Amino acid sequence: MSPPEEISDEEAMAAVDEVIALKPISTVLIIIAMQTEALPLVNKFQLEEDTDACLFPQKVPWVRYHGTYKDLHIDLVWPGKDPVLGVDNVGTVSASLVTYASIQAFKPDLIINAGTAGGFKAKGACVGDVYIASDVAFHDRRIPIPVFDIYGIGARRTCSTPNLLKELNLKVGKLSTGDSLDMSLQDETSILANDATIKDMEGAAVAYVAELLSMPAIFIKAVTDIVDGEKPTTEEFLQNLVMVTAALDQAVTQVIDFITGKCLSSL
């Protein structure tokens, strides 16, 4: 009898990935940055706020809602508010921490990072458009040293969802992430290099953690302001936030409805 053939670590990982891809999705983690963006989805899916203080480290302001919608268990987490200033904890640092802690706590099958974004009219974006991000990258991590420069940009492909895109007819575009709402000239150069249609303050950070922990992630972004338009970004963002959040709510609901009963390979 000949000894069994040994398989490489790469082959073993590929086999595990194949099993995961064929497993029905049962748990979805929604990461969302702002309370205004989160509450419509909490109400839509009839999620309850979690009062178990043991899930996250003590004293962090993060908030978790959870519940069952159709056949899916949904955990929705947003980073809460700054305890001193009372504003939403937006940006890449909070997004990274919350994503990591939530994956560890809830072991989801799929992550959805939902939120608002700026859009570029040069790429065809309009206020109220909802995009699925095909790629993510950073535009403000400038490290002008060979190889470190590529690391800083952190370009990544997102989870492939051809059937979802075909069914829901959502727009597709590349997403660029930075920690500032406005856009400096240096940021603009980097965003153009990233070939981005939309820009936000969390997506690429969520993608980094998701890839680190081998977790598939989908990015749904609704356009609140036109970055290369005539109105000031801050003014347009605040003016359109509530209206655009309704469009985001609708798109996330459509995606959740599509996901129900399917496996990753069917997306």
Describe the secondary structure blueprint for this structure.
Elements: H1 9-22, E1 27-32, H2 35-44, E2 48-49, E3 63-69, E4 72-78, H3 92-106, E5 110-119, E6 130-138, H4 148-153, E7 156-157, H5 162-168, E8 171-177, H6 185-193, E9 198-200, H7 203-212, E10 217-226, H8 233-259
Parallel strand pairs: 1-4, 1-5, 5-10, 6-8, 8-9
Antiparallel strand pairs: 2-3, 3-4, 5-9, 6-7, 6-10
Helix pairs in contact: 2-8, 3-7
What would your notes on this structure say?
With 267 residues, this protein is α/β, with parallel strands linked by helices. The protein is built from eight helices and ten strands. The protein has a five-stranded mixed β-barrel. Helix 2 runs parallel beside helix 8 (233-259). It is globular and about 50 Å long. The N and C termini lie far apart (43 Å).
